Structure prediction request, 342 residues.
Amino acid sequence: MQVRRMRAGLKGWGGVGAMAVVCALAMAFVLLLPTARSSGDGSTGTGGPGAATGTHAADTTCQGPEKQTLAPSGADGPTITAIKDRRGEKRKLIVGVDQNSYRWGYRDPNKADAELEGFDIDLVHRIAQEILGDPKAVQFKAIPTDQRIPAIQDGRVDMVVRTMTITCERAGKVAFSAPYFKTGQTVLAPKSSKITGYNDTLADKKVCTAAGSTAYLKLKKDRETGAIPSSVDISTTVPNQLDCLVRLQLGEADAVVNDGALAASQAAQDPTVALKSKAFTTEYYGVAMKKDADDLVRRVNQILVEYRTNGWQASYDTWLSATLGQDATASKPPAPQYLRTS
Prediction:
C-alpha cells in the first residue's frame, strides 16, 4: 500500500519525488554559498528620519501579536541606508525564503530555469522594487523552518518571507510586519486513513510537524491539557514542511499538522492525501526582520498598505486559487493595527 501511495504521489505536476530531489540538490548548493556577513548589512537601526518615536517592544500581555507592529513610514533610516549603500552585485535585498513549498516559494522542476517563484516570492520582488527600484535586486537564501529566527538574529538575512506565523514568542525575538496572509492549522492524512480531523482519531498515531513550528507547539500544548489524546506521538519533527509529506508517503507518519495554506498545496502535490479538518486555529503570516530594524519594519508596512490593494489579489489568483479556492476572503489579511507611539 505504501508503494502504491508513493507511486501515485509521483504523478501530476512533476511529482514530489522529483521535487524532493531538486530541493535536496538546491539546498546543497545553497549551503555552499558564502554567508553574507558584513558590517552595515542593514541589520541595525532605530527608525528613519521623520519616523514617529517609540519602541518595538511587544505588549507584555501579548494580546494579538499581529497588532504589535510599527506604523508605516516611507522614510529611510540606518537599516535601509545600509542596504542601499551596498555596492555592485552586493546591492541587493538579502531575504530568507523557502524553496520547496509548492506555490509559496519553490523551484518548478518542469521549468528550464527553475527560478524561485510563488506567493511569498512575489511579495519579496515587490519589496525589492520599492526599496531598491528593481524587483530582481534580491539575494535569496533558502532557510529551513527552524532556522528562520537565527538567520535574522545573526544578520545572515535582512528579512524572512517564508510563511512565518506571527506569535508572541517570536515577537520577542524578531520584529514583524503587519500580517499579509491569514491561515490556520489543519490535519493532512492519506485519503484512506480513518483519521477524521483534529480529534480522538489521532490517538496512537504518529503526527509529523516541522521543528520550531506553531503546529508542534499546538500539539504539545493540547496533548498536555487533554485537548487531544495523550497517546498522540509528536516525536516526528523535520527541518522543512515538505519533509513531512515525504514521511507520510513513506509510511513513517500517519498524519501531518500544518498551516492550512501549506497543507492544501501539499495535497495538490499528492492526490493520495487530503485535508482532514477545517482550520482549528487562526494565524497570520508576517515579514520578519531584526528586532531593532525599525525603519525597515516601517517601510515594509508602508509597502504592504499598497500591496493589499494592488498586487495581493493578483498573486493569490496566480498561485493559490487552485488550491485554496477562487474566493480569497478567508485568506485576506485583516485591516492592519499598529502600536501606538509617543
